[in-house]
Amino acid sequence: MRMDNLEQNYEDFISTVSHELRTPLTSIRGFSQTMLSSWDKLDDESKKKFIKIIEEQSNRLIHMVENMLSITKLQSVNNNFVFNELNIKVPVEQTIAIVKNQYPDRNFKFTCKENLPNVFVDKDKFQQIMTNLIENGAKYSPENSTVTIEAYLDNNNVCIEVANKGIGIDKSDYDKIFTKFSRIDNPLTRKVQGSGLGLYITKNLIEKMEGTISVNSEFLNDNSNLSKITFKVLLPVKSIEEQARIKCSQSH
Ligand SMILES: Nc1ncnc2c1ncn2[C@@H]1O[C@H](COP(=O)(O)OP(=O)(O)O)[C@@H](O)[C@H]1O
Ligand SMILES: [Mg+2]
Predict the structure, then answer these.
(1) What is the mean pLDDT of residues 150-164?
(2) 83-243: which CATH architecture?
(3) Do strands 157-166 and 227-236 pair parallel, antiparallel, or not at all (unpaired)?
(4) Counting atoms of ligand 1 from 1, which one is nearest the CA of 164?
């Protein structure tokens, strides 16, 4: 990466970070100041409400900082990817089990084609990708609904689709959701918290492994007023020769 490019990235990063940190910090400061100056005038109910807001906003900050640390790692040249052959079936099942714990009412349906070839990826990064996508599937879908995960071979790519019901994404927002800090404003996203970094990180990781990710949202004509949202990940199957070349370029 050239220097001017690096500096531009850094400036973008600082400006978005300051902007994003300001909102929760301002509200933490505001509610603490109000409580300190008007303690005697506030009833217990209001105090509790204010402290709840402070707690929520602190959690939001912690989540954001964690994601930002991920971003600085993404941007650093020395990104530690350890490439190995991986059969995706078990790691996907493990990810589903973890997300199921967080969203016990959601159903998860995983179908994996027999004899799927291995992909050549970093296992931890692959898990991070799947966690982000499956978590989103649960987070942005109605209670008790089903998140479907399908894995199959498509030309020379292992294809993984993660789909859920939810409020549809406009075609004009397809690119936007993969950029930094972008969230779509609708009643469902307003209800759940997020930093808008998940898909940005996910796309970056996939591209570092020479894969692609795309989204498709289709309105369901079933009176639910909802859409089916599908995220499709393609990871290339690498020949032994290609694997060797990647290994070589990693070691210096
Ligand atoms: N599975 C999904 N179903 C519907 N909308 C989604 C889904 N995944 C992502 N989105 C939309 O894309 C936005 C960006 O997602 P993401 O980068 O993961 O950030 P976050 O989840 O923190 O908001 C979300 O705010 C939401 O509007
Ligand atoms: Mg997310």
Answers:
(1) 97
(2) 2-Layer Sandwich (3.30)
(3) antiparallel
(4) 1
- In the chain, CATH 3.30.565.10 covers 83-243
Contacts of 84 (CB under 8 A, 6+ apart): 120, 121, 122, 123
- Alpha-carbon dihedral sign for residues 149, 108, 193, 20: negative
Mutate to test the pocket of ligand 1, among 183, 215, 216 (most ligand atoms within 8 A of CB): 183
Q: Does domain 3-75 have CATH number 1.10.287.130?
A: yes
Give the Å distance between the CA of 97 and the centre of ligand 2. Answer: 17
Going from the Cα of 40 to the center of ligand 2, the distance in angstroms, rounded, reads 41
pLDDT of residue 42: 94
| Domain ranges in the chain with CATH number 1.10.287.130 | 3-75
Between the alpha carbon of residue 241 and those of residues 81, 116, 153, 208, 235, the distances in Å are: 19, 19, 20, 19, 17
Distance between Cα 129 and ligand 2 center (Å): 11
Is the pLDDT at 155 greater than 50? The verdict is yes
Q: Whose CA is nearest to atom 24 of ligand 1?
A: 183
Q: Which of 30-34, 178-182, 240-244 has the lowest mean pLDDT?
A: 178-182
Residue with tokens 């007023």: 225
CA of 43 to the centre of ligand 1 (A): 38
Q: Does the predicted model carry a pTM greater than 0.85?
A: no
Residues at CB less than 6 angstroms from ligand 1: 136-137, 140, 164, 166, 169, 177, 182-184, 189, 194-200, 229
